[in-house]
Protein: Cytochrome P450
Organism: Coccomyxa viridis
Amino acid sequence: MLSSEALLQAQCPTTSGRPFQQSYSTSLCRLKPSRLQKRLSARAVSTDEDVDLDVSVDKGLQKLIDTAGAGVSVTSPDWLTQLGRLWGGKSDVPVADAKAEDIQELLGGALFKALYKWMVESGPVYLLPTGPVSSFLVVSDPAAAKHVLRSTDNPNRPIYVKGLVQEVSEFLFGDGFAISGGDEWRVRRKAVGPSLHKAYLAEMTNRVFGPSAQNLCSKLEVVARSGENIDMEACFSQLTLDVIGKAVFNYDFDALTTSSPVIQAVYTALKETEQRATDVLPLWKLSFLHPLIPRQRKAMEAVQLIRATTEQLIAKCREMVDAEEQARFGEDYINEADPSVLRFLIASRDEVSSRQLRDDLLSMLVAGHETTGSVLTWTLYLLEQNPSTMAKAHEEVDRVLGEKAQPEVADYQQLKYLLRCVNESMRLYPHPPVLLRRAQIQDELPGGFTVPPGQDVMISVYNIHHSPAVWEDPEAFRPERFPLDEPVPNEANTDYRYIPFSGGPRKCVGDQFALMEAVIALAVLLKRFDFRMVPDQDIGMTTGATIHTQNGLFMTVKERPRQQQASVSGKTVTSPQPVTVNA
Ligand code: HEM
């Protein structure tokens, strides 16, 4: 295997340190706006030719707007590449040869796949022009990714910030700590992080992860009896909303049995953040236009729904916390009736505004829902596609669970192979597939690339995880590449070759929560059922912050032979207990 440094040197000569963005902006500013707009309109591509707009914007711009609120992003048509070449100065950083047709077939699909193609052509560090005054420095090298991630919001090395992520998702996360930076972020992260302590995760295992998965089993039982098929991606999205609702707010969305508008709202809002990041003309920056643009209207409606839900839940919880409980607050504080993150934060008497609390909790709701849902979707898909791996997973689940219908914490620790299946699935399908950062000052990446101040950097986790220079046989689903007697893979023990939860100070705060939730859900489901893909299905791939299928993941479900299943009446089984706000 090539080391990351060797890969950099072999494929990418060093740059002379030209400030990329500055050279684009100054050069392009010389173009008359009307000419520029004409060019943009001519090249803009859309998947929806019949966009129905009730706004009076320029015809050419209409194609950039997606009334569906999902699916259309426009990035780097080839004239921008040519401009990149023309005004690229003396820099040796390769400019991606992005052709409109490369993008066209991926629109509404998996745009991050184009990043892979350009990595193969241009090397692990290249420049991707994305607009008249913007570009991304795309990084697909573990050493460079490690450097950037560890220098983000690092008080000792404050080089990178979230930058564009903050700009494009502020409408959703507001003051939430997932997008803030500097001291503001540090204080909030210190307050929220401890809420996910070990005792809390153990409590979640028994009260939330297992019982919620059992609720999904009840739904699947009906499907198994009828012989119909079911969209497992939708099921996992419902399951993870139920889990995060109970874990963060002690609230049961009951998404598995009633349709919850929050699911669509979260998807619409996340898709909007992605679209904002890749729009050639950032109309979203003109907030006075929002009421006139259907896509923006939809996004704002989605955010209002999520905020209103969060505010109601906080108000209910505030009423319940009394002084006695606050006095009992300690590092591993758990309220027996309500062990939620919300209760923890209110009981900690954290001096924080209602808005800050709302946005922090909203951050956790959004960050912890779709991500785990997508991990479950792709893990089940990969297991179904690889029968020998599925057989090993079944064997482990049956052996470890025995008569139990759901694992306890000690069992979770024994479900090592299933955890490696989840780890490997997150290598092949990382959520999100790219991480964004912005350089605040000039920097130099390992390998000698100079990053000018203000440069947006896109770390392609997907590329790192799929690069043949980093992984042997990268496209194969092989959980065995992470041996059971070695530590669970993470960014530190793989030297940033494996970064599904990011790394450095901004690493995911819910990584252990998510792994436990996913493994427990899969164990409960595999114990009970056999899953088969509906034949001749084109599941496709698209993104909305996480990697989704395009058409759902339809499966038939069959109860496994009785002797392998748990005895639901057995003493070891923790029966599902619905969590309610008033509990
Ligand atoms: C498998 C599921 C999950 C995946 C793949 C995932 C992935 C990530 C990644 C990659 C980041 C870092 C983004 C960056 O560096 O720009 C992140 C941040 C974050 N995640 Fe997760 N996450 C998952 C589950 C969760 C859960 C369950 C929660 C909450 C309980 C959560 C809460 C957060 C928060 C609050 C942040 C922001 C942290 C900060 O900026 O300090 N995530 N997640």
User: Anything to note?
Assistant: The radius of gyration is 24 Å.
